[in-house]
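Lab manual, section 2.4: Encoding a predicted structure.

Procedure: take the sequence of the chain (122 residues), apply the prediction step described in section 2.3, and record the output as structure tokens. A sample record is shown.
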Amino acid sequence: KQPDSSYLGDCPICMLPLQLELEKNTLTACCSKLLCNGCAHANYLRVEEDGFKYTCPFCREVSPTTKEDCDKQRMKRIDANDPVAMRREGVDQSMNGDYISAFEYYTRAAELGHVEAHYKLA
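Recorded output:
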């Protein structure tokens, strides 16, 4: 049975509740939307079958292909006060060993109401 909701909200494409395990969801680099893997996979199949460029299934922007492009796009989202992008940058900074920057990104995301950022700060 599908749960009625999750704290992550619903997939913006199919409107089903997102899985609690983050590995079962896909974060888009362009608009920082969290999609269910089913919608991400359906988009991948559409791209493969029709020979299109890979685009975001939500905003239809061409997806970044290199890590540098992803980082640049994430920084644009951070400048737009996107808490999802801030939390993701906090994760990356933490993995690189820069815990002070990670703390700052987690704090900014938590101030904007991101639940997982609150958890990371605890």
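Check your result against the sample. DSSP finds five helices and two strands in the chain.
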